[in-house]
Every structure is written in structure tokens, then in C-alpha cells.
Specification:
Layout (H helix, E strand, L loop, with lengths): L10 H12 L1 H13 L5 H28 L6 H7 L21 H13 L1 H11 L26 H16 L1 H9 L4 H4 L4
């Protein structure tokens, strides 16, 4: 690896990248939709969803631009190394071991158990204590999709899949964990 491969981002660059992807999201969710459809309607809910997916696609595009400028798109090996897409390492031996991913199975089971139990509802209520206005955000109420005009609208499954892929893989996660996190140590040190 060259010294360029380990070059860290400055605080200014980190903040500019962060702002470039976070500032558009509330604009897409709260400013644009009311200009076109009635707030709280099914059309409004869907428009907010589409626009937020557009924001996540923008995160992916910006990630690809930054990775291209750094030369990380030359090969899969370079890309994988740049975004820290590696096997987990055993803390005792330091050796890569994909079997360590199996700990996710019981953790996922625990998450599901907590989510469907009264504990999940209690945690949800605790989150609302400092932010009570969150409960009033109409686009968080997925029951709006349970309307007669969307009965049999299986295309929504495709929208949900696209939303998940860009939210959890190609959008936020790639940008914040893959592009920014490996380049923040130079400024934030161990707090990156």
C-alpha cells in the first residue's frame, strides 16, 4: 500500500461529506412532499418513501464518486480493503474467521424476542421521552399502507427491497462505515 492509500480525511472533508448526504434527507422528507400532495395521504406517504430512497441512492452515488477518486474501484481486492469488507478476526489470535459471524444468529433471535415482547414496547416508549414529537410523524405509521387502493399492490414489496438494499447496504452503511469510518482516524484518533 502506498501512503496515499492510508491518507486520512480532514475534519472539513468529513463534515462536507456528512452534510452532503444528511442535509438533503429532511428536505426530501419534509419540504418537497407537501408541495405536491396532501400531508398524511397515502400518496404523501409513498412520495416521502420514494424521495428518501432517492436520498439513499444519492449516498451510494457519492460513495462511488469518492471511492473512484481514491482509486478504490480498480479491483474487487482494492475495494474490499478500502471499505474494510473483511472477515471478522478472532480477538485472541488475530486470525480471520468467518465462523465468528455465527454469533449473529443468537443475537438476531434475541432481537426478535425483545422486539415482540413487552420489553420492545417499553424501549420504544423510552425513546419517545426525549423526542415525543417522533410519535406524531405521519410517515412512521406504516398502517397508512393498509388501505383499499393498495390492496394487491405487490410492487410495494419491490420498493421495500430497494429501500432496504440502499439503506442497509449500498447507501448509509457503505458511506458511513465503508467510506468515512476508515478515513476518520487521522482526525478523531481512537474516537473514530
Amino acid at each position: 500500500m502506498t501512503s496515499e492509500d492510508h491518507e486520512q480525511y480532514s475534519l472539513t472533508k468529513i463534515l462536507v461529506i456528512w452534510a452532503a448526504v444528511t442535509i438533503p434527507m429532511p428536505v426530501l422528507a419534509f419540504v418537497i412532499p407537501p408541495m405536491f400532495v396532501e400531508v398524511g395521504s397515502v400518496s404523501w406517504f409513498l412520495l416521502v418513501w420514494y424521495l428518501l430512497i432517492g436520498g439513499m441512492v444519492w449516498q451510494f452515488i457519492l460513495s462511488m464518486i469518492l471511492l473512484y477518486q481514491e482509486g478504490a474501484l480498480r479491483s474487487w481486492a482494492v475495494f474490499k480493503d478500502r471499505v474494510w469488507l473483511n472477515a471478522p478476526r478472532c480477538p485472541k489470535t488475530g486470525r480471520a474467521n468467518y465462523w465468528l459471524l455465527l454469533w449473529l444468529v443468537p443475537m438476531f433471535g434475541l432481537f426478535i424476542a425483545l422486539e415482540v415482547s413487552p420489553v420492545g414496547a417499553f424501549i420504544g416508549e423510552l425513546i419517545l421521552i426525549p423526542f415525543p414529537w417522533i410519535a406524531d410523524l405521519p410517515f412512521l405509521d406504516l398502517s397508512q399502507l393498509a388501505v383499499p387502493e393498495l390492496e394487491g399492490a405487490w410492487w410495494l414489496v419491490g420498493v421495500a427491497v430497494i429501500s432496504c438494499v440502499f439503506n442497509y447496504l449500498l447507501g448509509e452503511e457503505l458511506l458511513f462505515r465503508g467510506v468515512l469510518l476508515p478515513k476518520m482516524n487521522g482526525f478523531f484518533g481512537k474516537w473514530d
